[in-house]
Amino acid sequence: MGIDVEKARADTPGCARVAHLNNAGAALPPAPVIEAVAEHFALETTIGGYEAAEQNADAVEHFYGAVAGLIGARADEIAYVENATRAWDMAFYAIPFAEGDRILTTTSEYSSNAIAYQQVAAAKGARVEVIPDDANGTLALDALEAELAKGGVRLVSLNHIPTYNGLVNPVAEVGRLCREHGVLYLLDACQSVGHLALDVAEIGCDMLSATGRKYLRGPRGTGFLYVRREIVRTLEPPFLDLTAAEWKAPDGFEIRDDARRFETWERYVAGQIGLAAAADYASALGIAAIEERVTGLAASLRRMLAGRPGVTVLDRGEHPSGIVTFTVDGHAPEAVKAAARARDVNVSVAQPRTHGYDPHGLDAAVRASVHYYNTEEDLERLLAALP
């Protein structure tokens, strides 16, 4: 079954106002998410925050199963975290790096992650090594396999979909190689959860971080971390509180034995309930149907842009994602964004040179990222808005 686009748009109030092509930044939330967040916040204002959390405890707890079902995980392997960056950080900084350990990553790595690599490398004496791309622009699997065979690799860490160039990395193939060599595998799925069909068992990752605000269509200030049950006890979070661990008075503590060791007690409770609603909404539509719709729309947009004189489409990869990046001759990306915004079309500006180890990245490009509630008319509005 395909997506009922008319219903999806009716569920999305923002569609009446804008052609929203900035879903890789923050998607428009559907009505069930809006209502879940608003209703819990309203309850907080009338009976109190602690009391509202107690009254809605089942809705809070539902989050774990809802998100786990979305990615093929188990509920005890999921932690609620306030954003994807913090989820990724909690996993990465929990790894016991030692001098000489090797960290393998990609040319298109996100800058926040790259900064963390360098910090740990300086503090622990680890080494960060970048695997080259293949002819399609994705991670070269033969080069990765050769580096793993050399030994000494503590972690393979990469993004599923980079923030700026449309490609989809071969994450399941990477997982197979990591399992063969007994190496930890951390996947940044910030742009792929709610966008592509994911199964952590098929991918073979040990840890996966994601956000709520992008393709999952959840609230801002929400995210989650998946940690495979079999390795969770080998990872000690960089900080703990009374949710992550139990205090054994007067001078001891015991860390939880599930993924919630990466949580903190204080949290955006309405956001957690809203993120569960977003996961339920995506699951009800069907992730395979979402992926088909999103990638199909993006392919249409690439064809439309490629036929426009002066426009250069920059996307890479054999099977591109829903993220489309391009430039317009003689016009700065910020000017293109402003021209589109003036016509109620939302796009963003990506800065490839500041995200990744690829020295050939451009300073800036226009990024249009589609979702299943977008239409061909939305794409035509963008083309009409180009200078």
TrEMBL record:
Record keyword Protein transport present: no
Q: Name one GO molecular function term.
A: transaminase activity
Cofactor(s) the record lists: pyridoxal 5'-phosphate
Keyword Transferase listed? The answer is yes
Question: What InterPro entries does UniProt report for this protein, alphabetically?
Answer: Aminotrans_V_dom, Aminotrans_V_PyrdxlP_BS, PyrdxlP-dep_Trfase, PyrdxlP-dep_Trfase_major, PyrdxlP-dep_Trfase_small
Cited Pfam families: Aminotran_5 (PF00266)
Q: Which residues form the Aminotransferase class V domain?
A: 21-382
Q: Which UniProt keywords apply?
A: Aminotransferase, Pyridoxal phosphate, Transferase
Q: Which family does it belong to?
A: Belongs to the class-V pyridoxal-phosphate-dependent aminotransferase family.
Which PANTHER family does the annotation name? BLR4730 PROTEIN (PTHR43586:SF24), CYSTEINE DESULFURASE (PTHR43586)
- Record protein name field: Aminotransferase class V-fold PLP-dependent enzyme
